[in-house]
Amino acid sequence: MVGSGLACCGFVLFRCVYGDDDAWARFLDTMKQRVHAHVQRDADASQAFTRYVEPALAWTVIEDETT
Question: N or C end: fewer C-beta atoms under 10 angstroms in the chain?
Fold first, then answer.
């Protein structure tokens, strides 16, 4: 984030259950929508949230059924 020395912030999600790819896709979409809504809600109180946090938000999804 600008001025903080941090390049990004966010979430690391591990997929542990396989078999229903549609449910997994819905889960990821729901998570992203809720986080976006939360950031937007907090942005009303602080423009810095929208300016710095949301652009730096990273989603790392680990999904490898073989390991």
Answer: C
Is 44 a member of any domain?
yes
Residue 2's SS3 state is: coil
Which run of H or of E encompasses 42?
A: helix 21-43
Domain count for the chain, please give it: 1
The position carrying tokens 């937007």 is: 40
Distance, C-alpha 37 to centroid of its chain? 11
The residue range of the domain holding 31 is: 15-62
> Does residue 5 fall inside a structural domain?
no
Which pTM was predicted?
A: 0.71
How confident is the model over 31-52, as pLDDT tens digits?
999 988 887 776 666 676 667 7
Element (H, E) at 43: helix 21-43
